[in-house]
Structure formats: C-alpha cells, structure tokens
Design goal:
This protein is α/β, with parallel strands linked by helices. The chain has one domain: 3-Layer(aba) Sandwich (Rossmann fold). The chain is built from 6 helices and 5 strands, in the order E-H-E-H-E-H-E-H-E-H-H. The protein has a 5-stranded parallel beta sheet with strand order 3-2-1-4-5, with helices on both faces. Helix 2 links the parallel strand 2 and strand 3. The termini are far apart.
C-alpha cells in the first residue's frame, strides 16, 4: 500500500487545501492528513477542532485525519509513508519548501517530497488571510467549505481569536 502524508496546521482548512487533498488522494492508496500541533504557533482552533472540521468535510474512504508531534519525517517512517505532499502557491513557498524537502531527505532518504502547485484560483489563499477577512466581516464563502465558514463565524462572534 502506498501511503502519503499531507501535513499542515489547517487553521482553518481552505478550498486550496481541499484541492491539494483531492489531487494527492489520486496518487496514493492512503492519504494521511496530518494536522500539526505547532507548539510555537498561535492557532485559532485547537488540534481537535481542526481535525473534526476536516473529518466533517472529507468523507473519503482512503483519506484519514491524524495528528503528530516531532519531526514529520520520523512520523512518516513510523506509519510507512513513502511520500510527503506539499502545496506550492508561489516562488516564496518553493524556497522554504525546497529547503525543508532537502533536510527531510537527509534525515529520511526513503521518504520523498512531492510538490503540487496550487490551482490559479487558490494561489493567493492562506488560512491567515481567511481568518483576517472573516474577522473583519468579509465574505469568505468562495474560499472555505460551509462548515469552516460557520465555525469561523461562531468563533468571531464568541470573541475568539
């Protein structure tokens, strides 16, 4: 079985993420959506909330939502994953992702990194931008699934950031 991992904070998951997931799922037998705990990063949603949102949106038999701590390549090796999927929106993404791919390859040479370029419709999308637009009352319906829009609206109404 060919297992791939698509890691991210997914805070929150966007339509751009979903496009990468759809395309990556077609390349492997099992795709793990690995929600990072991001110890040093301030997230709007808890790991459990992010995982629940993704599970609510995705109901595909060979896509599983998991979480991990520590080095991604170590986690990949522990679950038998052969590939890490990364989405690229712009050249600036590539510079960072290329550096990470080289380090990951050095640490675990048997785990490959596969880059999928964002569709043109999603090149400017980021979870951070979605949160900012939503917090200011902007319409985000074209950028996130309805469950995410609802969760963001509730979070903003409750004063959460």
């Amino acid at each position: 079985m060919k297992i791939a991992i698509y890691p991210g904070s997914f805070d929150p998951i966007t339509n751009g993420h979903l496009d990468i997931i759809r395309r990556a799922a077609a390349l492997c037998d099992k795709l793990l959506i690995a929600v990072a705990r991001n110890g040093g990063k301030q997230n709007m949603f808890t790991v459990e909330e992010r995982m629940d949102l993704i599970r609510e949106i995705l109901e595909w038999p060979h896509v599983e939502v998991v979480t991990f701590d520590g080095l991604l390549v170590d986690y990949a090796k522990s679950v038998g994953a052969k590939a890490i999927i990364r989405g690229l929106r712009a050249v600036t993404d590539f510079e960072y992702e290329f550096q990470m791919a080289l380090m990951n390859h050095r640490l675990q040479p048997e785990v490959e990194t596969i880059f999928l370029t964002a569709r043109e419709d999603y090149t400017y999308l980021s979870s951070k931008l979605i949160k900012e637009v939503g917090a200011l009352g902007g319409d985000i319906t074209d950028f996130v699934p309805p469950a995410v829009e609802k969760a963001l609206r509730q979070r903003h109404l409750s004063g959460g950031a």
